[in-house]
Design goal:
The protein has 17 helices and three strands. The protein has helices at about 1-25, 30-50, 60-65, 80-100, 110-115, 115-125, 140-160, 170-175, 175-190, 230, 240-245, 250-265, 275-280, 285-295, 310-325, 335-340, 345-360, and strands at about 70-75, 200-210, 215-225. It is found in: Cytoplasm, Cytoskeleton; Cytoplasm, Myofibril, Sarcomere, Z line.
Length: about 350
């Protein structure tokens, strides 16, 4: 009787194992099912592990990904990149400066931006628009709804200007640092933030995909910033690009014409320009020139007559841009920071714009 029972039990066990095997370990309510499932996932991880960079781990939620889904993780080695660290610092300092009045202090982009609160306040401050969202949202659903509203407004603003949307509600809420940085860089560039982003910052990311039930990984390079001009969307080559690259002799003719033009007016104040690249970089001559062209005196308390810091120079150039717009000119394509940083093409564009509008002024 005992032998028959043992034989019956063994047969039943084999039948159970075969049954569980066919189901692929999906019956989580059975202990045996869980063991098979764990073994299956361990096998998949073992197969994929050699493909991952050192220090990168497959997260438990990755094994539960839906078919054809993917997740992106920052390669740990990229976090130690000095230019990447500099980019993080610049962005954090910028956000804290913008949101100082709201008494919001950001210390970690992943932890402080994922729920949409900081991004909401930042977008409202930059755009001057009030978004119709709940102020405080604790639940995941509420946070994602807020993110949805914020990102829809951001995308609606940026997409017409050629920005590639590299972020989503899910990527931001899952604390995808790369997606968060892409979003912040786009906002900083679009709203001409008074900051200097480090150029050519790239990172390595691990892309985890699920194909036919198996996790696949790949290491991909992501460019977070390029050059300032490229990020500003000024991809098209203009006359100054051509002059600088192919006709330096003609460029000198243009510079001479511009110097003659500005000195015609600045000489009235006993001022003279000999170097376009440097003498307009602090914004003082641009402000004085606008006053002369429009025939008014600019109160000295409106600008820094002898600017010393980068911020003071940016203030001056930005103020001169406001005066240009007050005079009926379009807002210059150049950023104030570019002029301050001695970017020749940016300075030439600003001056050429004045020349075409005021060349017949006495």
């Amino acid at each position: 009787m005992s032998g028959t029972a043992n034989t019956s039990a063994t047969a039943k066990m084999k039948k159970d194992e075969s049954f569980l095997g066919k189901l692929g370990g999906t019956l989580g309510r059975k202990k045996k099912s869980k063991e098979v499932s764990d073994l299956h996932e361990e096998g998949k991880n073992a197969i994929n592990a050699p493909m991952l960079p050192a220090g990168t781990e497959i997260h438990p939620e990755d094994t539960l990904m839906e078919e054809n889904a993917e997740r992106i993780m920052l390669d740990p080695t990229s976090r130690d990149n000095l230019k990447f660290k500099d980019l993080l610092k610049v962005l954090i300092d910028w956000i804290n400066s913008e949101l100082e009045e709201d008494r919001i202090i950001v210390k970690d982009l992943e932890e402080d931006c994922y729920d949409g609160q900081v991004l909401q306040k930042l977008f409202e401050k930059l755009s001057g628009r009030k978004l119709n969202v709940a102020e405080v949202t604790q639940s995941e659903i509420g946070q994602k709804q807020k993110l949805q509203t914020v990102l829809e407004s951001v995308n609606e603003l940026l997409r017409p200007h050629g920005w590639t949307i590299e972020w989503s509600v899910d990527s931001i809420h899952s604390k995808n640092l790369v997606a968060i940085i892409y979003l912040l860089v786009a906002l900083a560039m679009h709203f001409q933030a008074p900051i200097r982003l480090p150029e050519h910052v790239s990172v390595q990311v691990v892309v985890v995909k699920k194909r036919e039930g198996i996790l696949q990984t790949a290491l991909v390079t992501k460019e977070l910033t390029s050059t300032t001009e490229m990020m500003m969307g000024r991809f098209e080559r203009d006359a100054f690009d051509t002059l600088l690259d192919h006709a330096p002799d003609k460029l000198n003719v243009v510079k001479t014409s511009l110097i003659t033009f500005v000195n015609k007016h600045l000489n009235k104040l006993n001022l003279e320009v000999t170097e376009l690249e440097s003498q307009f970089a602090d914004g003082v001559y641009l402000i004085l020139l606008m006053g002369l062209l429009e025939d008014y005196f600019v109160p000295l308390y409106n600008f820094f007559l002898t600017p010393e810091s980068f911020e003071q120079k940016v203030h001056n150039v930005a103020f001169s841009f406001e005066l240009m717009q007050d005079g009926g000119l379009k807002k210059p394509k150049a950023r104030p920071e570019d002029v301050v940083n001695l970017n020749l093409k940016s300075t030439l564009r600003v001056l050429y714009n004045l020349f075409t509008n005021y060349k017949n002024s006495d």
